[in-house]
UniProtKB/TrEMBL annotation:
It comes from Streptomyces pyxinicus. This is Uncharacterized protein. It comes from the Bacteria.
């Protein structure tokens, strides 16, 4: 049985500052990944949250009907 553990991975941009410290700036974009192999590609963070939610619901529905 395939478990669906969809998660949103925010994409950050690294800026290296004088002195050597690295800042991870959010870009407003994200990727959805799931343990079943789903990968949404880069979408907006808002869209990513929707995709992850829909995917979890879809997986739950498939289980109920399968
Ligand atoms: Zn999945």
């Amino acid at each position: 049985m395939v478990e669906h553990a969809a998660f949103v991975q925010g994409i950050t941009r690294e800026s290296i500052h004088p002195g050597g410290w690295v800042e991870h700036e959010p870009t407003g974009r994200a990727v959805v990944r799931c343990s079943c192999g789903l990968e949404s590609g880069v979408v907006t963070a808002v869209r990513a949250a929707q995709i992850a939610d829909d995917h979890r619901r879809g997986a739950a529905y498939a289980r109920a009907c399968g």
